[in-house]
From TrEMBL, chain B:
Gene Ontology biological process terms in this record: peptide transport
Source organism of the structure: Sporolactobacillus shoreae
Gene3D superfamilies: P-loop containing nucleotide triphosphate hydrolases
Pfam families xrefs: ABC_tran, oligo_HPY
SUPFAM superfamilies per the UniProt record, alphabetical: P-loop containing nucleoside triphosphate hydrolases
Keywords of this entry: ATP-binding, Cell membrane, Membrane, Nucleotide-binding, Transport
Protein name: ABC transporter ATP-binding protein
UniProtKB/TrEMBL annotation, chain C:
Gene Ontology cellular-component annotations: plasma membrane
One BP term from GO: transmembrane transport
Leader peptide range in chain numbering: none
Predominant cellular place of this UniProt entry's protein: membrane
Membrane topology (UniProt): Multi-pass membrane protein
Residue ranges occupied by any ABC transmembrane type-1 domain in the UniProt entry: 141-330
Gene3D superfamilies: MetI-like
Protein name: ABC transporter permease
Family: Belongs to the binding-protein-dependent transport system permease family. OppBC subfamily.
Transmembrane stretches, start-end: 50-70, 143-169, 181-200, 206-223, 311-333
């Protein structure tokens, strides 16, 4: 946990030292004197070790340095103003994605090897295969440009602005959870206890939802970590395409402009987020059902 | 007592598999009477479970019941819709599976698992069903059922779980109970307790039971009649006494020889030689032919019919044909014959 | 009660039978157990989706590689005077594929407008620099595939040994190696890749390295898990007891048993690498001009998307097709190798 984060921030820091190019966008126009002044101002003229210590102490205090590009704003402030839209999109996408995915997975499993299974599975494969930026552009073209139902982009229309980007982001978790639940549910539907439930005369839907659903869905938390990670990735392109002023869009901008401190800050933020999600998954694992620990154990080994 | 609750006639069941059609059940016929226990024995893969699952029509998707009829209380089970079947399953006919460790839903309270069939079939209120569930738990011998009804399956021992499975099966007072190796996964003392429980229930409710098992010791304890299955067929059927003391089919002989008994402890334990038969290309003669030390040429080419030995005793082997040469059964079987005649008189 | 008529059985058959060896043998061997791979192959052939996907992939692969020698135009030749030409396919007279494009509501022959000789065809049109889209697409596909296959190969060379060693050694070494994996996998792949790309000089090798860096972890996990399972099986124990050298046991007995798992995992890594490469190029940190990959083509197309949508659709279509085919084929492979997954 802490080790992971420490390692990440240190490695990030070291890598940044090796970064080619200069953080000052308008490099050509700067004289050497100006550069020296700026380097001094940002502490970039000190020995690397000193810079490192400064930085790490700062990070521990929640100070991520200042952006070298965006009007000298503190990185933490940039994050604060931009995290709202990203979190909203992420949560909406995760909810839409998993709920729809679970439904699809159940339908697939329940009608295994019928046309309904084939079509839902195909849909899930499409969702998992078509790159989400292509999907995002499709959504934008169809619902915003052609039908004009929803805004093309920007974040100035409240909830309406969030619909298309959420959908675009949701496609990956949707596909992932649909495939995952399908396999889980097929396993569950072939299990002894479901056989016993059938032998008491309950119908297939009751079997699937009342007896099977919980057993199939609980293991879904094991892929929550990877799903969140892929949402992070997705947010970069989706926020860019829909011009959402979020973290992902900022990250892309910072990368393209060599904005050291912002890149580092966001890297640490992303890693922290993922580490927290993994931690939550671990806790859920233990809390939800002691049986899960057994299953998890046998599944991993 | 002698009225028939269930009657199977020439039932055939097959499965589609990658290597071809598996003929798992090839013409099974038997009658079951009210309040009676019929034991179904035979080696692994002989089609015992498949036969029983056909009775409640709970076979996997690749299965088909190709031929024959199954009458439950005079009505043809095979003609019923899935919907009608659901109103029979759990209410009229219940089934208990082999492994109590996997038979219970791990994420559902045990009381709910018992209550749901009652809500479904008897239209009880949740509260009422829950009350009955607690009573049932007590009846199958779960101590502190007033407290433990809230527990999940993993909080119970194997024996207790099998009791809970029995409680689920009994929830709606079925007339027929099918127990598919209910005690195989349990240790010996627990086995005995579960068997006592089932006999007790049978006495109180008059339930008919089909009891599947590998264990002839268990058969001796529970069964009124015994059917011996081999390669998807019943090769011999009769009262428990007839099967144990007057067995006629060489396969039954083999089975009996492979059980250790007290009076022949010094004798070497017997194992039937050879491999189980191929059910994809069943032989046209007697399926046991190639493993049968007493095989006749007729067994090779012709399927033996049932020869009747008493009103209740039938065996399918050409050895019983009048033209067949007289063969001497193995010594331990002859001793069984002797025991029988000593008790009942009759031919030496 | 039975179908056999007792009378019809000839008397001569009522003699004890001597079962011949041959017959017993037939009985014993008849449930033919096909070898594992032949069985799997048979199963996969039954899976129509997987077969079609495999064929599509092979076709794409052959065309992409073949286009090294048979490209309709040079993918890098810029002819600015021919920019944004619509598709024109000889013999096809459907608007949209005949050099006509809709301008202010009317179909106009753009090729005539731009003075393109009538013998010149751009099957899929041209981009803003007048480069032939089809040629660029073929070239881009080749590069994307090259990157993906190389990354997957690197995955193998890191992930498989790591997993094998970790699983085989077990105990403390395994624990340490697993901890290390855990720590690394706490870092979002996105971050790893982006950082790698920032540091290394831009270009194909850096992208391959960066992609391999994220892919090997899963491979190592999968291989370790399987190794742990297999190593306790009897034939391995026997080899150990007989004093076979560990390296020989691992290479001779364990690795072959892992091959199906490794193949399946690779089939999943390749599309992932294709996606990631496209993703990176799309946000602008991947491939640099004048190199093209499916990602850069989509990105280029996206810039002029509102007016010339086909510039984005074709590369988007190809990448989707490749991804879908790979995923379906990989799913099919998994089901075929592991039949219990599919009931
Ligand atoms: N779903 C299925 N698909 C294909 N074959 C099957 C299926 N279920 C059962 N069989 C075959 O049917 C035959 C009979 O199986 P069954 O389960 O009835 O045996 P059994 O007598 O109950 O054995 P056991 O004592 O091991 O439980 C076996 O050869 C088995 O391989
Ligand atoms: Mg069975």
């Amino acid at each position: 946990m802490i080790v992971t984060l420490l390692l990440i921030s240190s490695v990030t820091f070291l890598l940044m030292q090796k970064l080619p190019g200069s953080p000052y966008g308008n490099e050509e126009k700067l004289t050497n004197v100006q550069k020296a002044v700026m380097n001094h101002q940002y502490g970039l003229d000190k020995p690397v070790v000193v810079q490192y210590l400064y930085y790490m102490v700062g990070v521990a205090k929640g100070n991520l340095g200042v952006s070298l590009q965006f009007g000298n704003q503190p990185v933490s402030k940039i994050i604060a103003t931009r995290i709202g839209p990203s979190v909203q999109l992420g949560i909406q996408a995760l909810i839409i994605g998993t709920v729809v995915g679970i439904l699809f997975g159940i339908i697939s499993a329940r009608f295994q090897n019928t046309w309904l299974d084939t079509s839902t599975s195909l849909f899930a494969i499409l969702g998992g295969s078509v790159p989400n930026f292509v999907f995002a552009v499709l959504l934008q073209l169809f619902f915003a440009i052609d039908l004009k139902w929803l805004p093309i982009g920007l974040w100035d229309n409240g909830f309406a602005s969030s619909i298309l980007p959420s959908l675009a982001l949701a496609i990956t978790p949707m596909a992932d959870s649909a495939r995952f639940i399908r396999t889980e549910m097929i396993d569950v539907l072939h299990s002894d206890y479901i056989e016993l439930a059938r032998s008491t005369g309950v119908d297939e839907w009751t079997v699937a939802f009342r007896y099977g659903l919980r057993n199939a869905v609980i293991p879904l938390i094991t892929i929550l970590g990877p799903m969140v990670a892929s949402l992070l990735t997705g947010s970069l392109v989706v926020e860019q395409i829909f011009a959402v002023p979020g973290i992902g869009e900022q990250f892309t901008k910072s990368i393209l402009s060599n904005d050291y401190f912002t890149i580092m800050g966001l890297t640490i933020l992303y890693s922290t987020l993922l580490v927290i999600v993994i931690l939550i998954v671990d806790i859920l694992y233990v809390l939800i059902d002691p049986r899960i620990r057994l299953i998890g154990g046998t599944r991993d080994e | 007592m002698s009225e028939t609750i269930l009657s199977l006639d020439d039932v055939h069941v097959s499965f589609d598999s990658l290597n071809g059609k598996v003929h798992a059940v090839r013409g099974v016929s038997f009658d079951l009477h009210y309040g009676e226990t019929l034991a179904l024995v035979g080696e692994s893969g002989s089609g015992k479970s498949v036969t029983c699952r056909s009775i409640i029509r709970l076979l996997s998707k690749n299965a088909s019941i190709d031929d024959g009829s199954i009458l439950y209380e005079g009505k043809n089970i095979l003609a019923k819709s899935q919907r009608e079947m659901r109103s029979i399953r759990g209410k009229e006919i219940s089934i208990i599976f082999q492994d109590p460790m996997t038979s219970l839903n791990p994420t559902m309270r045990v009381s709910k698992q018992i209550a749901l069939p009652m809500i479904h079939h008897l239209h009880l209120s949740k509260h009422e069903a829950m009350k009955r569930a607690i009573e049932l738990l007590k009846r199958v011998g779960i101590p502190n059922s007033e407290v433990r009804y809230k527990d999940y399956p993993h909080q119970f021992s194997g024996g207790q779980r099998q009791r809970i499975v029995i409680a689920i099966a009994l929830a709606c007072n079925p007339k027929l109970l099918i127990a598919d190796e209910p005690t195989t996964a349990l240790d010996v003392t627990i086995q005995a307790q579960i068997i006592e429980l089932m006999k007790d229930i049978q006495k109180k409710n008059g339930t008919s039971i089909i009891f599947i098992t590998h264990d002839l010791g268990v058969v001796a304890k529970v069964a009124d009649r015994v059917a011996v299955m081999y390669a998807g067929k019943i090769v011999e059927i009769g009262t428990a006494e007839e099967i144990f003391y007057l067995p006629q089919h060489p396969y039954t002989w083999g089975l009996l020889q492979s059980v250790p008994t007290a009076d022949e402890a010094d004798e070497e334990l017997y194992a039937i030689p050879g491999a189980p038969p191929d059910l994809i290309h069943p032989s046209k003669g007697d399926a046991f032919y190639s493993r049968n030390p007493y095989a006749l040429e007729a067994d090779r080419y012709y399927e033996p019919p049932y020869f009747q030995l008493s009103p209740t005793h039938f065996a399918a082997t050409w050895l019983l044909d009048e033209r067949a040469p007289k063969v001497e059964p193995p010594p331990s079987i002859q001793r069984r014959y002797a025991t029988f005649y000593k008790k009942h008189g009759g031919k030496p | 009660m039975s179908k056999t008529n007792v009378q019809q059985v000839p008397d001569k058959y009522f003699t004890l039978s001597q079962q011949s060896e041959a017959e017993e043998n037939i009985q014993d061997t008849q449930p033919v157990s096909l070898s594992f791979y032949r069985d799997s192959w048979r199963r996969i052939k039954k899976n129509k989706g997987a077969v079609v996907s495999l064929i599509i992939l092979l076709i794409i692969l052959v065309i992409a590689v073949g286009s090294i020698w048979f490209s309709p135009h040079n993918p890098d030749t810029q002819q600015v005077q021919y920019s944004f030409l619509p598709p024109k396919i000889p013999g096809l007279h459907i608007n949209g594929f005949n050099g006509y494009a809709k301008q202010a509501g009317v179909w106009v022959d753009v090729y005539k407008e731009k003075d393109v000789p009538s013998s010149v065809y751009f099957y899929l049109g041209t981009d803003q620099f007048g480069r032939d889209l089809l040629s660029r697409l073929l070239y881009g596909t080749r590069i994307s595939l090259l990157i993906a296959f190389s990354a997957a190969f690197l995955d193998l060379t890191i992930g498989v040994p790591y997993g094998l060693i970790s699983g085989w050694l077990g105990g403390k070494a395994d624990t340490i190696m697993q901890r290390a994996l855990e720590i690394i996998s706490g870092v979002p792949t996105l971050v790893v890749v982006v950082l790698m790309l920032l540091i290394f000089p831009p270009g194909i090798p850096s992208i391959i390295m960066a992609l391999a860096l994220i892919g090997w972890i899963t491979m190592a996990r999968v291989v370790r898990g399987q190794t742990l399972q297999i190593k306790n099986q009897e034939f391995i124990l026997a080899a150990r007891v007989l004093g076979q050298r560990p390296v020989k046991t691992v290479l001779g007995h364990i690795l072959p048993n892992l091959s199906s798992v490794i193949i399946i995992q690779t089939m999943f890594t390749i599309p992932e690498a294709i996606f990631f490469e496209a993703f990176l190029s799309f946000i602008g940190v991947g491939m640099r001009a004048p190199n093209a990959s499916l990602g850069t083509l989509i990105n280029d197309g996206y810039q002029t998307f509102q007016f010339y949508p086909h510039l984005m659709w074709y590369p988007a279509l190809i990448i989707s097709l490749i991804m879908i085919a790979f995923n379906i084929f990989a799913d099919g492979l998994r089901d075929a190798f592991d039949p219990k997954m599919k009931g």
